[in-house]
């Protein structure tokens, strides 16, 4: 005779009353997850095919655009003095404009360690950034010690969640809404 599970802490909305029914539901969850993964793979395959088609369609357009830009740039360089007198930097035409702009200043760093050492040696520490952050790994490893300190702003969280791990599915479904990668069976 199938074993009935106790109703302790079980919501009344569950239609599952027997372990054999629970086993069937786990099987159905696995089947549903496999269908979801298959649909997602098909979607990704379709997206990849569309992306490849789009790349092929736009390749000649990009080539023509680049050629037009290069030709216009060469024309403008050759005729800059005639087209842009008195220090002008751009020319507006009926279809648009072209011209030259100064780029914003950028800092090119070659040898960051050398530059840091030089700045420190000269006492120019205002140009050096020091980043402070919590070392979460060390804090978790020293949890009991940290909990005794009762520090404001730090709280360790640990909770139990329900999971279902259907066979032949790479993820576990959980009550906290997170799909976890399956752990290897030991």
Most strands sheet: 3 strands, antiparallel
Number of domains: 1
Number of helices: 4
Oligomer: single chain
List the strand order in the largest sheet: 3-4-5
Share of helix, binned: 40-55%
What's the Cα radius of gyration?
33 Å
Structural class: mainly alpha
Q: Hey, roughly how much beta strand do the residues contain?
A: 5-15%
Quick one: how many beta strands? 5
- Rough shape? flat
Low-pLDDT stretches: none
Give a structural overview.
The structure is a single chain. The strands form 2 sheets. A 3-stranded antiparallel sheet has the order 3-4-5, with no helix packed on it. It is built from 4 helices and 5 strands. The longest helix has 65 residues, at 19-83. The protein has 186 residues and is mainly α. It is flat and about 90 Å long. It starts with 18 loop residues before the first helix and ends in a 5-residue tail after the last strand. It has one domain.
Characteristics:
two-stranded antiparallel sheet, 186 residues, mainly alpha, 3-stranded antiparallel beta sheet, 4 helices
Summarize the structure.
This protein has 186 residues and is mainly α. It has helices at residues 19-83, 112-121, 136-141, 143-149, and strands spanning 90-92, 97-99, 163-164, 171-174, 180-181.
Question: Secondary structure elements and their pairing?
Answer:
Elements: H1 19-83, E1 90-92, E2 97-99, H2 112-121, H3 136-141, H4 143-149, E3 163-164, E4 171-174, E5 180-181
Antiparallel strand pairs: 1-2, 3-4, 4-5
């Amino acid at each position: 005779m199938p074993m009935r599970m106790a109703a302790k802490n079980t919501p009344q909305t569950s239609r599952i009353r027997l372990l054999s029914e629970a086993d069937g539901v786990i099987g159905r969850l696995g089947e549903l997850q496999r269908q979801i993964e298959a649909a997602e793979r098909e979607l990704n395959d379709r997206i990849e095919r569309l992306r490849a088609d789009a790349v092929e369609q736009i390749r000649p357009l990009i080539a023509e655009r680049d050629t037009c830009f290069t030709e216009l740039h060469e024309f403008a360089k050759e005729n800059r003095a005639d087209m842009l007198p008195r220090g002008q930097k751009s020319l507006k035409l009926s279809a648009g404009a072209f011209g030259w702009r100064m780029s914003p200043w950028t800092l090119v760093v070659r040898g960051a360690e050398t530059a840091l050492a030089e700045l420190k040696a000269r006492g120019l520490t205002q140009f050096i950034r020091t980043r402070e952050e919590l070392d979460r790994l060390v804090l978790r490893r020293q949890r009991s010690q940290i909990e005794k300190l009762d520090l404001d702003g730090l709280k360790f969280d640990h909770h139990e969640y329900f999971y279902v791990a259907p066979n032949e599915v790479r993820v576990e479904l959980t009550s906290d809404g997170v799909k976890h990668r399956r752990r290897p069976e030991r």
